[in-house]
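Reopening this one. Same input as before:
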Amino acid sequence: MKVVLLVVGKTDSGSWDKALDDYAGRLKHYIPFETEVIPDVKNVKNMTESQQKEQEGRLILKALQGGDYCILLDEHGKEYTSKQFASHIDRMMHTVPKRLVFVIGGPYGFSDEVYAKAPERLSLSKMTFSHQMIRPIFVEQLYRAMTILRGEPYHHE
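Same output, byte for byte:
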């Protein structure tokens, strides 16, 4: 199984990219992992929020492959402790045949079509984070899950 983080748009700050690259590099020692960036939708100033979500949704759905298991990072998703998330990832590693794809959408969330495609939603916090900031936070939690599953000392009780 390969894990993919699918994100909409580039980051504006190199510090977030650096943090993401650091944890992605660590993570690759445990599982196949990659980040895929969908380009920002053009002319958003002339679009409603709904139109922007629809445009982004088409691009997200186009990036998904047959057999992908898609989990949306969404403020209304299920919350886990780090240990619970590790257990969930462990189950996914034994049941997802191809790619486990975590999706971070644009600033307004996801279109109805994207919600319909994803059997799960995951929330990292009740707080709101920028879409740029959540990328390294999520990959750090995925790395933490791998170290928990291996019994390594990165995660402390």
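So the earlier flakiness isn't reproducible anymore. For the record, The chain has a mean pLDDT of 93.
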